[in-house]
Amino acid sequence: MRKLTIAGFALATVMTAGCASNQAGVDEATATANSAEQTAENALNTANSAASSARTAQQTAEEALAAAKAAERAANEANERAKRMLEQSSMK
Predict the structure, then answer these.
(1) How far apart (Å, rounded) are the C-alpha atoms in residues 92 and 87?
(2) How far apart are CA 37 and CA 29, in angstroms?
(3) So which residues are the signal peptide here (predicted)?
(4) What is the per-residue pLDDT for 41?
(5) Helix (H) or strand (E) holding 1
């Protein structure tokens, strides 16, 4: 009877250790999942920030292009005026 009681205690100890081991595995899996979720959230924030920066850069590029086109038109007009002035002065 005594051997049976000791075996029962040993079995209970093994079962308890197994449950604790399983709980440790669950805790580790939960921690890993939480870490992965945080990493994904950080990646999403980084992507959103990059997209915002890209939109700002595109807007700046569009404004620079518009300014360059305006400068080109002004330069063309100035060249046309200079050309007409040269033609007029050569006629005199």
Answers:
(1) 9
(2) 12
(3) 1-19
(4) 93
(5) none
Rounded distance between C-alpha atoms, residue 64 and residue 57, angstroms: 10
Measured CA to CA, the distance from residue 16 to residue 10 in angstroms comes to 10
How many other C-beta atoms lie within 10 A of the C-beta of residue 89? 8
Block means of pLDDT (10 residues each) for the chain, 92 residues, are 55 55 79 92 97 98 98 97 91 75
* Structure-block tokens of residue 36: 């992965």
Model pLDDT, residue 25: 76
Give the length of the chain.
Answer: 92
CA-based R_g, the chain, Å = 39
Instruction: State both tokens at 75.
Output: 């330069």
Token pair 């980084």: residue: 46
Taking the mean position of all CA atoms in its chain, how far away is CA 87?
60
- Give 3-state DSSP helix, strand, coil % of the chain, rounded to 5: 100, 0, 0
